[in-house]
Amino acid sequence: MAVRVRIAPSPTGLLHIGTASTALFNWLFARHEGGEFRLRIENTDTSREVAEAVDQIQDSLRWLGLDWDGPVTFQLDRMDDCRRLAEQLVAEGKAYEDEGAIRFRMPDEGVTAWDDVVRGRVEVRNETIEDLVIVRSDGRPTYNFASPLEDVWDGITHVIRGDDHISNTPKQLNIISAVAADVPVYAHVPMIFGMDGKKLSKRHGAQAVEDFRAAGYLPETMMNFLALLGWAPDGETTIMNREELLRRFDLTRVSPSPAQFDYRKLDWMNGVYLRELPPEEFAHRLLLWLGENGYDWPAELVTRTAPLVQEKIAKLSEFPGFAGFFFGDVEPGQADLDGGAPMLAAADEALASLEPFDATAIEAALRDTADRLGLKPRQAFQPIRVAVTGSRVSPGLFESIELLGRETTLSRLRAAAGAAG
RNA sequence: GCCCCCAUCGACUAGCGGUCCAGGUCGCGGCCCUUUCAAGGCUGAAGCACGGGUUCGAAUCCCGUUGGGGGCACCA
To answer: How far is the CA of A333 from the C1' of B62 (A)?
Structure first.
C-alpha cells in the first residue's frame, strides 16, 4: 500500500515552528517513500478560528518548500458524516447520550497498545481511559472523534505527529476499532523546546515560521535545521540540502527524546547557506527580503553592495544595519573619530584626484598615507571607516569607498574631519 | 493526584554488548591570519543522571530512584 500522511493544524494562528517540524517529518517521509502528503485543517472549534490563519499556514508551508498533494480539506466539512457515525455507535451500544452530548464507551478491562515507529510498543490500561465526548451537545464532533475518522476516510497510512498526542492515541485507536476500520501506523516525533528546556513560547522570541522568515533566515536553513532536531542520518553530517534530506530520511531513526531549539546554531547554519549562495542569488534573496520588510532601496545598488556583505552576515536582516550607509546619510560618533583628524585630512587629499578610483588604488593610496603619517593600518583606517560608513564595523573599507564614489566619500571625510576637530 | 513519554559534552546528536580511557557539529577558550566585523586554519576544555542487577564484558539489556516533559476539556 502506498504511503499517505498528513498534517492537521488548527487555524488558530501562524504556523508554529513545532508544527512545521512535524510537517517536515511527514513530508520527508512521504516524499522519500514516493507517497502522498496532505494538508487538513482541523477547524471544528470555530470559536478559536482566526480568519487569515488558513492562508498563512499555506504560505509558510510553501515558503519552507513543503508541497502537499490534493486539495486542502477541512474537518468541519465532515461534521455530518461524524454525527451519523456517532448515532450509529449509539445504536450499537458503543456510545451513549450524556446531557445532550454523545460519549464513547471505552473498554474497562485489558490494555490498548500500539507499536510506535519511534517509541516502540506503548501500552495503556483501559481502566485509565475515560469515556470520551465525541459529539458536543451543540452537535459538533470533537477532535478526538473527528481526527481518527478522517484519517480512516482519507486512507492515511501513517500518523506522524508530536508526542503531545501520545495520550490521545489509545482513545483514537478504540474509536477506529469501534467502526471496524484498519488502524494506521503511528509515529510520535519529539517536541521542540526553547533553550531553557521549556515548551517553545512567545518568551523565546521567534516561534512562528513567519517570524524566522522576517528575521532573515533562509528556508533551506530552516529545513536543514529542523530536520536535525530529532533526526540524524549519521553522526557526522550536518549540512544537507533538500535532495540529500529526501534521499537519506528514515523515520525509524527519529529520536524519541525532545530537542531544544538553539538559535545560535541556527544563526551559524544560516550563515553557511548565505555564503554558499551564488552572488546573484544572494542579491536576489536580499532584494526579496528587503521588499517583504518595507525597504524601498534601489535594486541596482543593493545588487552591487551585496557581495561586500555576503560573507559577513548571518541573517538577511543584518543587511540594513551593515550596509545602510550606502543608502543614506551617516552620523559618525564623535568619540570614534577622536584623534583621527590628521589621517582624515590626509585621506581627503590622497583620494581627491586619485585615478582610477577603485579598491586596489584606494588601498594603495591609503596605506601609503598611513605610512607617511607613521600610523599602523589599524589606527589609520578606523577613523576613515567611521567617517565613511558611520560605524566601527563595516564591509571592506576600500571596496566600500569605491562603491560609494569619490564625491560622497570626500564629503563624508570632510564632515568628519571638521567634527573630529 | 492519576496516566504516559523522555534521559550521552552547555546545545543538537553518533553509538543499537567488546572496534569507546565515547566520535561529529554549534557554542565556549587559546593561537594564527587580518583595515573593523565576519569568514578561514590550528588547537583546548567539556558528557554516558544515580543505584542495583544480567553478562567473561554495558553508554548500549532489565529493574528501581531521581530529574525533565506531555496528557487527564462538550480545545485541537
So the answer is: 68
